[in-house]
Design goal:
The chain is mainly α. About 70% of the residues lie in helices and about 0% in strands. The longest helix has 26 residues, at about 30-55. The structure holds ascorbic acid. Ascorbic acid binds near residues 144 and 147.
Length: about 150
Amino acid sequence: MRLKSLSAAVLAVSAAVVSMAASADTLKFAKAEDAIKYRQNVFFVTSQHFGTLGAMANGRAPFDAELAKQNAQVLETLAALPWQAFGAGTEGGKAKAEIWKEKAKFDEAAKNYETEMGKLAAAAKTGDLAQLKAAFGPAAQTCKACHDAFRNR
Ligand code: ASC
């Protein structure tokens, strides 16, 4: 394949993946339990990537720019996914009833989180530890804000 058509193909696939993640409405759950399991698992995977990145941002692990970039990219992609699993009738797990009672507030918190994960990925792409450190705190803050308001302990 010629380089030009190869890059066009790569671009088309990336665009498809991005729009799939961005619309985040690609799933139909067979039962509420599956939606709960889905969102909990996305958050679990997220916590593993966030923890790995956080160790570098906080100096608990040596900084590896490539590892940071890859983790942050995964976090950005994952950030779009959980929200489709909080549909009507999927109350339960650690989710507070406020998610459904104050949906606008929940959506806003989710959007803030997605925005900060995007900034975190952009910061990690620079390969500059100072930028990663600067973006990490605000990103963690959006995790915490949502947990404080919408997650049972
Ligand atoms: C993590 C993790 C969270 C967030 C939160 C940020 O690494 O598992 O739930 O960061 O502690 O305040």
